[in-house]
C-alpha cells in the first residue's frame, strides 16, 4: 500500500520500488545482516561452514533473522552432502525436519526468547555434527565414496542390533566400492537389468565370503543391502567430483 501511494499510480516504478524496499530492509536489519543474507545464497558450498562466517551469523542481533539464515544454511549443506553420502544425508534431513517441526509446534506459554535461543543452539549443534560427519572419512583411512558404503554396512548392523567394531567394515567398504566401480564402467549400467543382476549377485557373494554379520545371521535380505548400495552408487556417480564438497 505504501509503495502504491509513493508512486501515485496503479503501476509503481519497479526500480523505485526495489530501491525503497532495500532501504527498508537495511534499516530493519542493518547492512551486515543484508550482506549475510546474500552470502547464504551466493557462497560456494565448500566455504559455507567457514568459522569466521558462522561467527558473523551467531552475532546477528535479531533472533528470528538468525534462525532463518541458519536454517537455510543447514538445509543447503544437507542437500550438498547428499551428493556425497545419500544414506547419511537422509538421516540428517529427517533429524532436521523433526527439529523444525518441534520448533513450529512449540508451546505458546514458553518465553519466545528462550525458544529462539534453544532452537539456535540446536541448529548450530547440527551444523557441527554435519561438519564432523563430512570429514570423518579421514579418520577411517577411506575415500568419501568408500565412507558412504561403510556407513550403509555399519548402520545395518545397528538397525538389526548386531555388535560390530567400527573398523570391521573398512576393508569391506573398499571392496564394495571396487565392485561398484567395475560395474559402473558399462554404459548405462544403472538401467541394464543384466548388469544390475550381476552387481546383485557379486555383492552377495562378496558379503558372504567376508562374513558380513547381518547376512550371516539371516537378519537381512539380499534385496535390502543391494537396494542401499545400488542407490548410493547411482547417486554418487551422477554427481561430478564429490570431493569438491569435502571440508579440508
Alpha carbon gap, first and last residue: 50 Å
The description of the largest β-sheet is: none
* String of helices and strands: HHHHHHHHHHHHH
Radius of gyration from CA coordinates: 24 Å
Question: What is the number of strand segments?
Answer: 0
**In which range does the helix fraction lie?**
over 70%
Find the structural class using helix and strand composition. Answer: mainly alpha
Low-confidence stretches: 242-248
Strand content: under 5%
From the spread of the alpha carbons, the general shape counts as elongated
Tally of alpha and pi helices: 13
Mean pLDDT over the residues: 80
Describe this structure in words.
This protein is an all-alpha fold and 248 residues long. The chain has 13 helices and no strands. The protein has helices spanning 2-7, 14-29, 31-42, 51-58, 63-82, 86-104, 112-135, 137-140, 144-159, 170-183, 193-209, 213-216, 222-237. α5 (63-82) packs parallel to α7. It is elongated and about 75 Å long.
Which structural traits does this protein have?
elongated
SSE map:
Blueprint: H1 2-7, H2 14-29, H3 31-42, H4 51-58, H5 63-82, H6 86-104, H7 112-135, H8 137-140, H9 144-159, H10 170-183, H11 193-209, H12 213-216, H13 222-237
Helix pairs in contact: 2-3, 3-5, 5-6, 5-7, 6-7, 9-10, 9-13, 10-11, 11-13
Amino acid at each position: 500500500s505504501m509503495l502504491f501511494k509513493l508512486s501515485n499510480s496503479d503501476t509503481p516504478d519497479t526500480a523505485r520500488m526495489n530501491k525503497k524496499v532495500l532501504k527498508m530492509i537495511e534499516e530493519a536489519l542493518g547492512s551486515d545482516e543484508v550482506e549475510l543474507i546474500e552470502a547464504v545464497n551466493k557462497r560456494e558450498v565448500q566455504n559455507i561452514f567457514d568459522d569466521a562466517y558462522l561467527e558473523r551469523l551467531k552475532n546477528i542481533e535479531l533472533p528470528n533473522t538468525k534462525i532463518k539464515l541458519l536454517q537455510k544454511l543447514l538445509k543447503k549443506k544437507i542437500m550438498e552432502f547428499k551428493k556425497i553420502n545419500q544414506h547419511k544425508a537422509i538421516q540428517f534431513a529427517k533429524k532436521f525436519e523433526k527439529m523444525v517441526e518441534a520448533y513450529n509446534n512449540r508451546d505458546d506459554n514458553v518465553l519466545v526468547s528462550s525458544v529462539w535461543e534453544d532452537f539456535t543452539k540446536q541448529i548450530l549443534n547440527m551444523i557441527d555434527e554435519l561438519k564432523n560427519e563430512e570429514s570423518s572419512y579421514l579418520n577411517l583411512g577411506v575415500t568419501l565414496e568408500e565412507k558412504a558404503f561403510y556407513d550403509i554396512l555399519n548402520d545395518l548392523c545397528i538397525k538389526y542390533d548386531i555388535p560390530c567394531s567400527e573398523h570391521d567394515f573398512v576393508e569391506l567398504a573398499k571392496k564394495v566400492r571396487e565392485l561398484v566401480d567395475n560395474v559402473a564402467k558399462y554404459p548405462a549400467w544403472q538401467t541394464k537389468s543384466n548388469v544390475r543382476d550381476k552387481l546383485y549377485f557379486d555383492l552377495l557373494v562378496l558379503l558372504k565370503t567376508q562374513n558380513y554379520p547381518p547376512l550371516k545371521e539371516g537378519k537381512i535380505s539380499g534385496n535390502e543391502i543391494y537396494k542401499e548400495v545400488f542407490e548410493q552408487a547411482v547417486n554418487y556417480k551422477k554427481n561430478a567430483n564429490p570431493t569438491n564438497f569435502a571440508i579440508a
